[in-house]
Write a structure and sequence with these properties.
By secondary structure, this protein is an alpha/beta fold. It folds into two domains: 198 residues, 3-Layer(aba) Sandwich (Rossmann fold), CATH 3.40.50; 102 residues, GMP Synthetase, Chain A, domain 3, CATH 3.30.300.10. Helix content is 39%, strand content 18%. The chain has a five-stranded parallel beta sheet with strand order 3-2-1-4-5, with helices on both faces. Strands 6, 7, 8, 9 and 10 form a five-stranded mixed beta sheet that branches. Helix 6 links the parallel strand 4 and strand 5. Helix 1 packs across helix 7. The longest helix has 22 residues. The radius of gyration is 21 Å and the shape is globular. The structure holds xanthosine-5'-monophosphate. The site of xanthosine-5'-monophosphate has 16 residues, from loops.
């Protein structure tokens, strides 16, 4: 998949300063205007770095002729859908369609415990929801995508899962992919120059199927909330203790079994939460982060005190290999 139009030009400079980012933005804004003219462009805006940077670039180039569609599938982290609305609709005055598809996704996923099947349902339902929104828009000719260079180089791996592929024939758009020759660090420099908040620009990687791969077995609403709330506590504590931006990826997992505990003199039969925190260069191998023990204890105490239904916290000490980063 590395034909000429998908090969980064050999003489392309690495974008690693605000000045180079500004020059890149000016060039892309001109190119986008040239490519789409007065046409309308559709973008699936997850709130991840890549789609957010593409959105901000297109807003600068064509304003409200960009239609951003944010699908809340119920598997996002705490505060994420709200942040997308705040940054893009309220601050950047974007044309943003917010789709609350939570019930739809969770109903489809009810009772499904096989990981691959869960992923497939999430992917297929995402395309269906996006397609429905696309059909409601008149005169859209273009589809913008947050493809970045590693997606082209490693096509078929990580990102391929969550790009909007598979739209029906009559919805074949012309593609607008302004960051397709950028590496991740360059996308972040451009995002910063576009004025996106640090919490978006320096966000840790997040899988397309979202918390769905961290709520093990058949997803239930109560366990999903346990994942979301415990993840929020973990992120808050990492940020407060200088680990944000230092640890590559960290999250919590809730399995589909219970264990016995005790609270206020009564036996409990509740869920464990697993904490995972890893460092890696390319996600192919990963090392476990050595979290200071007092911090681990504090996080465990907070999660068991603040997240209903959780009576135990464990720390995953497994490197990749033999473990993977996610639990699924
Ligand atoms: P694993 O678990 O295979 O994960 O060690 C490697 C990296 O890929 C991310 N990941 C995904 N990203 N869609 C994505 O966009 C997915 O289905 C998916 N599964 C895993 C994972 O979070 C880690 O960063």
């Amino acid at each position: 998949m590395t034909d000429n139009c998908n090969k980064r030009p050999d003489d392309m400079q690495r974008i690693n300063t605000p000045e180079l980012a500004q020059a890149f933005i000016d060039e892309k804004v001109a190119e986008i205007r040239e490519q789409v003219g007065d046409g309308k462009v559709l973008l699936a805006l997850s709130g991840g770095v890549d789609s957010s940077v593409v959105a901000a670039l297109l807003i600068r180039a064509i304003g409200k002729n960009l239609v951003c569609v944010h699908v809340n599938h119920g598997l996002l982290r705490k505060g994420e859908p709200e942040q997308v609305v705040e940054v893009f609709r309220n601050q950047m005055d974007a044309n943003l369609v917010y789709v609350d598809a939570v019930d739809r996704f969770l109903d489809k996923l009810a009772g499904v415990d096989e990981p691959e099947k869960k992923r497939k349902i999430i992917g297929a339902e995402f395309i269906r929801v996006f397609e429905e929104e696309a059909r409601k828009q008149d005169g859209v000719e273009f589809l913008a995508q947050g493809t970045i260079y590693p997606d082209i180089l490693e096509s078929g791996t990580v990102k391929a899962h969550h790009n909007v592929g598979g739209l029906p024939e009559d919805l074949k758009f012309k593609l607008v992919e302004p960051v397709k020759f950028l590496f991740k660090d360059e996308v972040r420099v451009v995002g910063k120059a576009l004025g996106l908040p640090d919490s978006m620009v320096y966000r840790q990687p997040f899988p397309g199927p979202g918390l769905g791969v961290r709520c093990l077995g058949a997803i239930t609403r109560d366990r999903l909330e346990m994942v979301r709330e415990s993840d929020a506590i973990l992120r808050e504590e990492f940020a407060a203790n200088g680990l944000e931006g230092k640890v590559w990826q960290y999250f919590t997992v809730v399995p589909d079994f219970k264990s016995v505990g005790v609270r206020d003199g009564q036996r409990t039969f509740e869920r464990p939460v697993i904490i995972r925190a890893v460092n890696t260069v390319d996600a192919m191998t990963a090392e476990v982060e050595e979290i200071p023990y007092p911090l681990l204890k504090r996080i465990a105490a907070r999660i068991t005190a603040e997240v209903p239904g959780v009576n135990r916290v464990v720390y995953d000490l497994t490197a990749k290999p033999p473990g993977t980063i996610e639990w699924e």
